[in-house]
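> tool_call: predict_assembly(chains=two)
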Amino acid sequence: MKIREFAAGAALAAYCAFGVAAATQAADLPPLSHSLTKLTPQPAPALRLKDLDGAVHDLARLKGRVVLINFWATWCPPCRREMPSMERLSQALKSEAFSVLAVDVGEDADTIDAFNGQLDTAPTFPILLDTRSRTMQAWNVAGLPTTFLVDRQGRIVASAIGGREFDHPELIRAIRELLNR
Amino acid sequence: MRRLTLTLLAVWGVAAHAGTDSSVDAETGLTTWQTETAGIQVRLTQISPDQARAFYQARGFSPGAAERYADECVFMTVVRNIGDTPIEHRLSSWRYESAGQPPRALRSKTEWERIWKQRGVTESARIAFTWAQFPTAQTFAPGDWNQGMTSFSVPRGGQFDLRFVWRAGGKTHAGKLEQVKCADENS
């Protein structure tokens, strides 16, 4: 078994442009997955945080919608790589009862704005600030990125650990199934 | 503790020593080691001392505190479940062994936290450090993977073998990455 030899030039350039993330650049980037792990439905912990503009977002107010909650940070390479696909997913389902919330751990709005400025398309979904990582701990997140899917009843029904290609057809199909229930 | 040690010794004795592959990034000159065995893929990529310094200073570490971490032999570590059974990962079960040294455990996040508090590293910087390290314990469903830093007390350019241990299907498994080398100061 040989390690695949694909040079991720564009990604490397992006990381280097952002400075410190170059430290986490691998020789070749691990592929993003597209699997979701179904879980026995359980009530989602509370999630009430401010976004980059200071507006408060409360998961409890999103009952009736399917919500994808992504825990991330700008210095986390797979988080950075999956972010554009999360925006594409959000756009693909924008006319449906579906929301994306991206929860950043431990960083300030300026840092996140700087990261967003490098993206071809800045995220249109809310980016929430979990500056002291307490929400992550309440959600039992062990590493970044970690993503949860919450159904219309406010229950966690699926999770994904590690980077994903969120607009992969299989993932969109899984979300549509929840929307159609 | 004794029971864990005996279990690890027993597992290591029958460890599936799948081959370790390595490749060098043409742009950075940094080396990656990777192995796949029994449904798990483990990959270590060198992080140069300069990269480690830059990363943590940008996260709020003082130059001295960042230097303390850069003194370690640091790797970007990836674990991926490539099988069809959930994997239970626990970093405290991993051991590394360099020539003339007994097997050693990796320094825990708790130990690092104590070091950073003694050095006056701010809470926000400590939070960044904690989440940048490879998770202490995690269950990976098929398709799940994670990435984070691991550090080893091995001198620059030094070499070691890493024995990683995980549980799947109710059994403890082990694998090995061989002859992993720390980045040089000038990497």
